[in-house]
Amino acid sequence: MKSKYKAFVKWTIALLVCCLFTSCYSVRLKNVYGDPMPDLVSDRTDYYRMMKVNEIDTVITIKATDKDFTLLLKDCGTSGIHTVEYKNTFGGVLLSAVTFGRKRRVRVKYVCMKPNF
Asked: How many whole angstroms separate alpha carbon 76 and alpha carbon 73?
């Protein structure tokens, strides 16, 4: 009887770990036409080194009748967006599940393009 319980606990933990790893991902979209806005004083060592990064980390509320949500980015002006990264975490998935999709955690990093004069 104890061995069946131990096997059940092991499989449950393994399933939970798999769900944790599959629910954490990031998607990065990059524009190949143009140069990113430089940031010479940045000390980043990740993908965004030497780029001026704008970050949005907020929780949005969506009604059950809404089909989509628009978040306006006004920092780039007319030069456009060079790179956008959307990150989804297990905490964000859990928040969405607990609130039945009404609240969602949004984590976005974006880099504007360098203006061409």
From this structure: 7
Which parts of the chain have pLDDT scores under 50?
Answer: none
The Cα 33–Cα 73 span in angstroms is 19
Residue 117 has what DSSP assignment?
-
Q: Is 69 exposed, middle or buried (0-12, 13-18, 19+ CB in 10 A)?
A: exposed
pLDDT computed for residue 43 by the predictor: 87
Q: What is the pLDDT of residue 93?
A: 80
44-51, long-range: CB < 8 A, 24+ apart: 48/83, 48/109, 48/111, 51/82, 51/83, 51/111
Backbone phi, psi, residue 56, to 5°:
-125, 125
CA 63, 103, 99, 19: dihedral to nearest 10 degrees? Answer: 130
Instruction: Give yes or no for a contact between 37 and 52, defined as CB atoms under 8 angstroms apart.
Output: yes
What DSSP element (H or E) covers 6?
A: helix 2-22
* Confidence at residue 20, expressed as pLDDT on a 0 to 100 scale: 60
Task: State the pLDDT at residue 55.
Answer: 92
